[in-house]
Each structure stands twice: as structure tokens, then as C-alpha cells.
Design brief:
By secondary structure, this protein is an alpha/beta fold. Helix content is about 50%, strand content about 5%. The strands form three sheets. The chain has a five-stranded parallel β-sheet with strand order 8-9-10-7-11, sandwiched between helices. Helix 4 packs antiparallel against helix 6, helix 6 packs parallel to helix 7 and helix 19 crosses helix 20. It is globular and about 85 Å long. The relative contact order is 0.08. It holds the Pfam family AAA.
């Protein structure tokens, strides 16, 4: 085992020495299920006729009749895998791939358990226990360490199996249900329980080769989730979680109970847009441009972005506006920029959209889809961009009877992922939520959007000339006239004008609060006066909580990073992208500008304007609905009385 920084290596020879034991487990072993109930006969069907088994003995002795008479089931995973295609007597390539992946995953798991035993002192306790010299005072510690090793073995096996099978997945899906047979007495028993349950899942959910991979990968995910959940309250795991463990031959890094993922890009088929093709939306476009470059500052060795450490990184943002104002165009522009930057630098880029088709009527499936979406985007081995278009249709309001169970599941997953107890912002990914009706999004979920992009489309005469010219194309000879094409879309000038517009509030409700506070205390030129203004906003809208203040201060920090990384840094990766983390941090720090009072006032007004806009729309919609209901009641009453 070699050590480098905070990373420890599992040597190839330490893994390969467990190949024989791993192969023996796949060949066959006996296991008596203790938690899960067997759904099928344990032994896989034979390829030739065999001798029938005897009926299980049932005791007639009083008192023993209620005891479990379950006999160990013979688990023969290799036979089970090969039985997936009875028509072919030879092992298929996919079957062989699965067998090799499972053997490799078991060997990695056993090597990891052995390494943990060495660093935690469990190996010494095992030897003492075997020799009968284990001190009675240390038996509790011994039991806890064995349970910890069992959790590690189960999770690493599932993690490695899912990782190794990822390149061989297909469109086939398998709903295997929850992992139940997670035994924590010791590592061998944990692996036997996992393999027994995998055998059961394959018997039910793998009728052919493609479903073999899908069912195994699905079970591996369930087993990882179950083991990670148990690990939250389990003691003595520091020897495993304190460092990353590296398997060089597989390019696999084991980071505690976090699932590993192949750092592969997604294939994008969308039509990318250039910045000048996004007409209007100046602030939204400006922040999207800067965020695209911010993501590229991520350091894959340190697994951290200097912007995330210094402040000013946008992890989540909400883009709202009327239909047809350019939300999809903004997504196409940002995805295109990041895609091009990543291709130039040789980084893996992963874009994924979570749409209405991910809401499933099957209980729990919508939540699983949302978790999978989050995990794919936050994978620390890639640059990620996740979008949730029409989030008001996808994530339901809590307590709303019109929201389906699937929509409620999605809301819960997103809230936990975006600002939950376990949320870690590394700075390698960002999530954009877009909606035409943000007032219909759950308040708590909406407030988890750290930045607000008002997507208001073209506004000025120049904007409308630009968009008309752009959409008309080139198949005409109509003169442009007296106009500088795309001159109004120059980012710096347009953004400066847009930010200045927020020196005073835009929404009438907030303008009234601002005017009243200004009359009482004068110019907002100190933190005390700004705090007074914030309290007045909270009194006008009780949803303006501490999270709103955090989002405002984060936006102010973004403004402190009010610079655009030079294009040449993206075009020539050697100038910035390939520098070490400390050098990149120093280069960014030199460009940072000081925070001013104007920045703070503008960001307070921008954020509060959006909340007042959402609240006003939400209240107005509710009032209109009640008016229609009252009208229908009155009409129904009138018709009823006329008919009596």
C-alpha cells in the first residue's frame, strides 16, 4: 500500500491475491437468509436434467415447530448468469463481462477490508481472537470493528461493481427493489448476503443478457445506498473515510461511502447558441457567461474550485420569465460554451436535463430518477451542468393536493441535494431551474436557488431589430437600415445599465417599503441601515428569511468576482486551466474587486424584487381562482333555485 497526500493506493498484487477466493464465491456457497425472504429457489436452473431435491424436513417436536427450518441455499452466481440465455450453450460476451466485473469487485472489496483491518488495528484483534487471547475488555471494540469492516466490504463491492459495469449499460432498466440482506457480523458474511440477494434479483429481473447488466447495476446502487445509510451512525469508520483509496488499474477512486462514477462525457445533440444570438436578457446572459468560465477553474486533483472556496460560485440558480423570452436559448448558449471549453481542455463534460418524463407513477421511482440525475451531475470527475426545465410542473408544492406523489418525492430530493445537511459544493457543477410560473414552485425549494436570472427577452427597439434580423436568416435582400447590428448586445455596457436599474426596486410592493425606509433613515450607506431595510422587507413578506440573506450575500460575493476570465485562458489551457490549485487561486484573487454599498443595495433589490414578483403573481392567481369558484357557486345556486 502506497500513500500520496490524502490518497492511499490499493496495490494490484494485494487485489489479485484475492481472485481465487472471489472466484470461489461466484462458483458457489451456502447461505441462510436472515433478513430478506427468498423469492425463488436458491440454485440456478441446470443446463441438463438433474436429480430432484428432497422436501425440507419439518420438526414435529413441540416447541421446535415454530423455529426457522430454513436450510442454507446453494448460491451459484456463475450458473445463474449463464442461465440467462438457455438457447446458447456458450457463455456470451456480456455474461463473461459480468462475471469478470463481479470477481474484480469482490477482490477489490476483500483487499479494501484487509487494508482497513491493518490501519484500524482489527487485524491484531482477529489474530488474538483466533488464538483465544482476546482481552474481554476489547470484545466490544472487536465487534464494532467487524461491523465497520462488513459495511465497508459491502459498499466497496457494490461501488466497484457499478463502476466497472457503467460502460456496458444499455437502455434496459430493472426495478429490483430495496437491498435487504445487509449483514454486519463480519465482512465474509456481508458479501455472502449481498451475493445471495443479487442471485435472487437476477433470477427475477434478468431474463436476458441486457437485463443482467441492468439488474446487477440497479442492485449495486441499492446496496450502496443501504450501506451508506447504515454508515452514518456506525462507529470506527475513520480508518476508511479519512483518505481516498486508489485502484490505479481501473482508474477507480474510493472516497468513503460516496459512489464512484466513470468520468465520461454525455453526447450533446442540442443546437448550441452563440452569446450574440441571445437577444436581451443581459444580466442572465452575463452571469451565464461568467459561470461557464468559473466552472472551468475546477481543480480535478484537489476536487475543489477556487471560486467555491473564496465565495462567488453559483451552485444553483433560478431562471424565470414569460413564455418565449429565451430560457431555452440561454440553456443552449451556456451548455455550448461549457462543452467547447471542456473539449479544448480535454475535460469530461456531462449535461443532463430533468424533465416531466422523469416523473413516474411507480412509487419511489420518481425520487430514484431525481437522485440519479443529481449524482450524474455532481460527479467530481466531470464538469457538470444540470437543468430542470418547467420546474413548476416537475416539483410539487408540499401540501398541494394537486401534486402527485412523484412530484412530492422530487421536491424532497432536490431540497436535500441543493441545500441539505450533506450538500458539498465542490465547484465542478451547477444546476439551473427554469420556469414560466416560479410562483407555483415550493417556497423552500425556490429559495434554494442562490442566484436569480430574470429572463425577460428583448426589451428595447434595438433588441427587437436584432432578434428580427437574427431570425429572418440570410435568404433575403432587405436592407438593415440605420442600426448597428448586435451593438445593443455588448455585454459590459448592457449589464452596467441593467445593474444600475436596481438602485431602486422595480416591484410596486418593494418600492413602497424602500421609499418608507428611505424617508425614515435616509441613504442606505451603512450595514445598520441595510439591516433595517432587510427587516422592513421581512415585515412586508414573512418568506424573506435568513436563507434569503444568504442568497443575497452570495450574489454580492459573485459581484466581487465581477470579472470575466480572459478568453485566452480558455483557448490555451496551459495559461490557467492546467495550473495547480494554489496558482489558480492566486491568479483569481488578483482579479477580485472590493465590495461596494451599491452592489449590496442592487443585489438586495434584485432578490427582493423577484420574491415580491413571485408572491404577487401567486396571490393574484389564488384570488382569481377563488373568484371563479364563487361565481360558479352563485350560478349553481341560481339554477338550483330556478329549478325548484
Amino acid at each position: 500500500m502506497s500513500i500520496s497526500g490524502n490518497q492511499m493506493e490499493l496495490r494490484e498484487e494485494d487485489i489479485r491475491k484475492h481472485y481465487a477466493a472471489a472466484a470461489a464465491m461466484l462458483e458457489g456457497f451456502d447461505h441462510t437468509p436472515r433478513i430478506a425472504k427468498p423469492a425463488v429457489e436458491g440454485k440456478a436452473p441446470e443446463r441438463s436434467a438433474g436429480i430432484g431435491t428432497r422436501r425440507r424436513f419439518r420438526s414435529t417436536t413441540p416447541g421446535l415447530v415454530t423455529r426457522s427450518t430454513a436450510r442454507p441455499d446453494g448460491v451459484h452466481l456463475i450458473a445463474r448468469i449463464e442461465a440467462a440465455d438457455d438457447d446458447d450453450p456458450l457463455t456470451s460476451p456480456l455474461q463473461a463481462t459480468l462475471q469478470h466485473a463481479l470477481r474484480r469487485a469482490l477482490a477489490v472489496s476483500l483487499a479494501m477490508g484487509e487494508a482497513y483491518a491493518d490501519v484500524s488495528g482489527l487485524a491484531d484483534l482477529k489474530r488474538a481472537n483466533l488464538g483465544g487471547s482476546l482481552d474481554a475488555a476489547r470484545k466490544g471494540e472487536f465487534t464494532e470493528l467487524l461491523a465497520a469492516e462488513a459495511l465497508i466490504a459491502a459498499h466497496v463491492f457494490a461501488n466497484a461493481a457499478a463502476y466497472l459495469l457503467a460502460p456496458h449499460g444499455s437502455e434496459a432498466q430493472a426495478e429490483v427493489g430495496e437491498a435487504e440482506e445487509l449483514l454486519t457480523d463480519n465482512a465474509p458474511l456481508a458479501l455472502h448476503g449481498a451475493l445471495w440477494e443479487l442471485d435472487q434479483k437476477l433470477a427475477i429481473h434478468a431474463p436476458d443478457d441486457t437485463h443482467l447488466i441492468a439488474a446487477t447495476a440497479a442492485y449495486a446502487e441499492q446496496l450502496m445506498e443501504k450501506a451508506a445509510l447504515r454508515a452514518r451512525s456506525a462507529p470506527r469508520l475513520e480508518g476508511f473515510t479519512a483518505a481516498d483509496w486508489r485502484v490505479e488499474a481501473d482508474d477507480l477512486t474510493i472516497s468513503g461511502f460516496e459512489p464512484a462514477a466513470k468520468a465520461k462525457s454525455t453526447t450533446l445533440t442540442m443546437a448550441f447558441k452563440k452569446p450574440h444570438e441571445v437577444v436581451g436578457n443581459h444580466i442572465a446572459k452575463y452571469q451565464a457567461l461568467r459561470l461557464s468560465k468559473m466552472l472551468m477553474a475546477y481543480d480535478f486533483d484537489r476536487r475543489l474550485n477556487p471560486f467555491a472556496e473564496m465565495g462567488g460560485f453559483i451552485f444553483t440558480f433560478m431562471g424565470d420569465g414569460k413564455p418565449g423570452t429565451g430560457k431555452t436559448t440561454l440553456i443552449q448558449m451556456m451548455a455550448g460554451l461549457i462543452h467547447d471549453y471542456c473539449q479544448n481542455a480535454g475535460y469530461a463534460f456531462r449535461y443532463q436535463n430533468f424533465g416531466i418524463d422523469n416523473i413516474d407513477s411507480y412509487q419511489g421511482k420518481s425520487g430514484q430518477n431525481a437522485k440519479s440525475f443529481i449524482q450524474n451531475v455532481i460527479d467530481p470527475g466531470v464538469i457538470g451542468f444540470g437543468t430542470i426545465d418547467d420546474i413548476d410542473q416537475i416539483a410539487g408544492k408540499r401540501g398541494d393536493r394537486q401534486s402527485s406523489a412523484g412530484q412530492q418525492e422530487v421536491t424532497a430530493v432536490f431540497m436535500e441535494a441543493f441545500a441539505g445537511a450533506g450538500t458539498v459544493v465542490r465547484g465542478n457543477c451547477t444546476f439551473g431551474m427554469f420556469s414560466n410560473y416560479p410562483e407555483n414552485v415550493d417556497d423552500a425549494l425556490r429559495q434554494r436557488a442562490g442566484a436569480r436570472f430574470l429572463v425577460d427577452g428583448p426589451q428595447t427597439r434595438e433588441d427587437y431589430i436584432d432578434i428580427l434580423t437574427l431570425l429572418m436568416g440570410k435568404n433575403h435582400a432587405i436592407p438593415l437600415g440605420d442600426h448597428e447590428l448586435y451593438g445593443a448586445q455588448e455585454i459590459k455596457q448592457a449589464v452596467a445599465r441593467s445593474f444600475e436599474a436596481h438602485n431602486r426596486p422595480q416591484e410596486p410592493g418593494l418600492a413602497e417599503v424602500f421609499g418608507r425606509v428611505h424617508d425614515q433613515i435616509g441613504e442606505l450607506d451603512s450595514l445598520a441601515k441595510l439591516g433595517t431595510y432587510l427587516k422592513a422587507i421581512q415585515q412586508a413578506d414573512e418568506r424573506f428569511t435568513g436563507r434569503a440573506i444568504k442568497n443575497i450575500t452570495d450574489a454580492v460575493k459573485v459581484r466581487a468576482m465581477d470579472f470575466e476570465l480572459p478568453d485566452e485562458w480558455m483557448e490555451n489551457p496551459e495559461l490557467f486551466l492546467f495550473k495547480d490549485y494554489d496558482t489558480k487561486s492566486a491568479m483569481i484573487a488578483e482579479l477580485r474587486v472590493p465590495i461596494t454599498i451599491d452592489m449590496v443595495v442592487q443585489e438586495i433589490n434584485r432578490y427582493a424584487d423577484s420574491e415580491f414578483r413571485y408572491a404577487d403573481k401567486s396571490d393574484e392567481v389564488a384570488i382569481e381562482t377563488m373568484v371563479r369558484d364563487f361565481g360558479r357557486q352563485e350560478e349553481a345556486k341560481r339554477r338550483y333555485l330556478e329549478g325548484k
